[in-house]
Amino acid sequence: MHKPLRIAAIAAACALTGGVLYGAGAATAGQSTANSTHEPYNIGLLVKDIDTYYGTTADANGVYQASSDSPYAKDLARLDSAARKYINQAARKAHHRGEKPAVMFDIDDTLLLSLDYEKRYNYTYNGTTWADYVNKADRPGVFGSAELVRYAESKGVEVFYNSGLSEAQRTAAVENLKKIGADVNLDADHMFLKDKANPPAYLSACATPGTWTCTTVQYKSGTRKHIEDDLGYEIVANFGDQYSDLDGGYADRTYKLPNPTYFVG
Ligand SMILES: [Mg+2]
User: Fold this and answer.
1) Where is the signal peptide (predicted)?
2) pLDDT digit string (tens) for 45-74?
3) Ligand 1 centroid vs 61 CA: distance in angstroms?
4) Domains contained in the chain, number
5) What residues pack around ion ligand 1 (CB closer than 5 A)?
6) Ligand 1 center to residue 7 CA distance, Å?
7) Rounded to whole angstroms, how far apart are CA atoms 122 and 73?
8) What is the pLDDT of residues 229-262, one digit of tens each?
9) Model confidence pLDDT, tens digit, residues 125-155
10) Are 194 and 170 in contact (CB under 8 A)?
11) Is residue 81 part of a domain?
12) CA distance 75 to 142
């Protein structure tokens, strides 16, 4: 995922630390570019702020973990509580109307937390180290997200995944999601990953075999359009940690999970 236009949070996201936006229409709010003309927030203090926000501690194996009583965890708990209420209502309405309700989840830092990677590599991205990290399939879950996946399923809502991870990372993604308890619809009909070599026909406006020019928003919203228009589902809620997960329509409501550690445009 992270590859195109990924900007380290350290350069871009000072305003977000400690904040969480969620709810309908929030997807385009907040910072979307790094265009500050005044002196940016001090990088050393920002790193400390991020550690405080996650309640970051190294475990016995030296792996950085977020704390379950951190401001990050509390923001997620508020978001999850609101989302459950909404999903319950939206599912009932959809079933009443004879619609097929669905929810969409991004994977990286929406379901699987990459805090250890980000802190270890100073919030910068490298394709090789990132691939190694993903392939270990040992990321912890984002607090509450696996429970939310299972809650949606329990309400008769079809769970889909929409990720910038590549087809080559599918096995590791499935293994890791099982490990955190998000063991719902982890098949290729429900988990949409980036297939640059053989892109699906519904992305033909920006991708043909061997030529991929889709932005994250084009890729992700194009996938949601396919699920709604071709597969006949009504996506009632879409969950992501980046605005580019949420922009572009084809979801009744968007939920922006907090992530002050990097920015994907
Ligand atoms: Mg993500």
Assistant:
1) 1-29
2) 999 999 999 999 999 999 999 999 999 999
3) 25
4) 1
5) 106, 108-109, 241
6) 13
7) 22
8) 999 999 999 999 999 999 999 999 999 999 999 9
9) 999 999 999 999 999 999 999 999 999 999 9
10) no
11) yes
12) 12
